[in-house]
């Protein structure tokens, strides 16, 4: 408890830092035996939703809303995932699944579990819709970012035009940075998985650490440096592969 009402959390029209001390847990539509925190949503100006969901053993969901695609990334626990056609997968820590729109699935916790969830309205195009994808973060190669061996990017989803969202994991050795201040049309949702650092958002610099959530709107200036004695790692979302006027 903070008796003076202070927090590192900040919410602006262009970016937000949401720290665990300000999280408010609630029931979520479409989930049973679960509580969640909706960190990022259209209510703040975003074009997607990002949430943290805690499921008790036996807790489940039967799919996202109409026209909505979903990515789940497992922080802790163990879950079973049933897909259309009967395929069943087991998800454990750092497993993930991309679940296409309008294809019901059942995600059920075998043990108490904690998930990061990204959802957005799928933007159709003149191509086949994507299929479900199940994988583990450890199987995605860590590619040096712009040639820097101390900043490594793991791309979890295919990059072809069927996909209008990307979900990646970025790992920085202590002292490593983004090589430039980035300003771009894509927006981001991000959660710190490990370590600590400083994130520039707009004209402010914020200390960040494990558990913190960040939203970056389109064209928000952004930059990061890892600090401390251990690598910093974050999971993040961005929108991709669609016309800006769509």
Can you put this structure into words, describing what you see?
With 246 residues, the protein is an all-beta fold. It has two domains: 23-136, Jelly Rolls (Sandwich), CATH 2.60.120; 139-239, Jelly Rolls (Sandwich). 0% of the residues lie in helices and 53% in strands. It contains no helices and 18 strands. It has strands spanning 10-11, 15-18, 31-40, 49-61, 68-82, 88-92, 95-99, 106-121, 133-136, 143-145, 148-155, 165-172, 188-194, 196-201, 204-209, 213-216, 222-227, 232-239. The strands form three sheets. The protein has an eight-stranded antiparallel sheet with strand order 1-2-16-13-18-12-11-10, with no helix packed on it. Strands 3, 4, 5, 6, 7, 8 and 9 form a seven-stranded antiparallel sheet that branches. A hairpin with a 2-residue loop joins strand 14 and strand 15 (204-209). The chain is globular. It starts with 9 loop residues before the first strand and ends in a 7-residue tail after the last strand. The model has no long low-confidence stretch (mean pLDDT 96).
